[in-house]
Amino acid sequence: MDLSTLPALTVLSDYVTTAKLDDNTIIRINHPKATAAISLHGGHIISFKPVNQEDLIWMSKDAVYDNKTPLRGGIPICWPWFGRVAAPSHGFARNMAWTLVEHRESEAGVIISLGLTDDEQTREVWPHRFQLVLNVEISDTLTATLNVTNTDSAPWKFSGALHTYLNIGDINNMEVTGMGPTYIDGLQDGKVCQGGDTLALTDTIDRVYTEPSKEIVLHDNAFNRRLSVVNEGDNSAVLWTPWEAGAKSMGDMNDDGYLTMFCIESTLHAKTLESGQEVNPGDTYQLSTTLSVK
């Protein structure tokens, strides 16, 4: 995705501008170390390209930028729950208007901070007060940190994920290591299964790996690179691909999109809202993912 040709709406600094992609307002980062882009709709990272590298982030060619629809690809923020434990699926944060709180830059890189707070609309879905701040650090690496603060008068619980779609050369020529041996299989009604040390793909998978290593590595052989995913604050890692049939069933994914994407997600997994991560009033919980090329 080449966002450099879009005319600038505003110039915020030497390295940061805003632009319109259809109806979505995009924050663009153009730094000597990397380029990146973030949609204010959803607080959604849609590109991260270190110098002399292919993009690490995959976006669907059929993603809908109407400032209403959750984007297909990138790094959706699944919050205050992950999956279908409540409605809407994956929570509401990925479909809300975030605000630019702050931007900082130096020779080392750029930090973009986006914010989302509760309002009448969110409290109709989830009756709690909160403040979210997403810090996106762009340099040779990308670190996305979701700061979850309870601004209510009582504790509440949440689950969530940074649902990263990685851009790869060919899903038939890749493998993953570091995800751990034990996973909950979403295609077998949540059956707990044991897997090997290396994952290669021949069909769709939807797995919650419950004992991941600190670093999960995707060996992207077609692009001759290794993508490192280091997660913090998580209790599991979700690995997912829709494969061919799944891609064809999605209106916002191009039919061959599955060939060049794979999801490795920093996840706080919970089977129910009641079994999620508790946050006391005034406290902040952090969930993060760091992406880099090795």
UniProtKB/TrEMBL annotation:
Family: Belongs to the glucose-6-phosphate 1-epimerase family.
One GO-annotated biological process of the protein: carbohydrate metabolic process
Database matches in InterPro entries: Aldose_1/G6P_1-epimerase, G6P_1-epimerase, Gal_mutarotase_sf_dom, GH-type_carb-bd
CDD domains: D-hex-6-P-epi_like
The protein's Enzyme Commission number: 5.1.3.15
Taxonomic lineage: Bacteria, Pseudomonadati, Pseudomonadota, Gammaproteobacteria, Vibrionales
Domain of life according to the entry: Bacteria
Key words of the record: Isomerase
A GO molecular-function descriptor: glucose-6-phosphate 1-epimerase activity
Presence of keyword Isomerase: yes
Pfam families referenced in this protein's UniProt entry, alphabetically: Aldose_epim
Record's protein name: Putative glucose-6-phosphate 1-epimerase
Catalytic residues in the record: H163, E265
Catalytic activity: alpha-D-glucose 6-phosphate = beta-D-glucose 6-phosphate
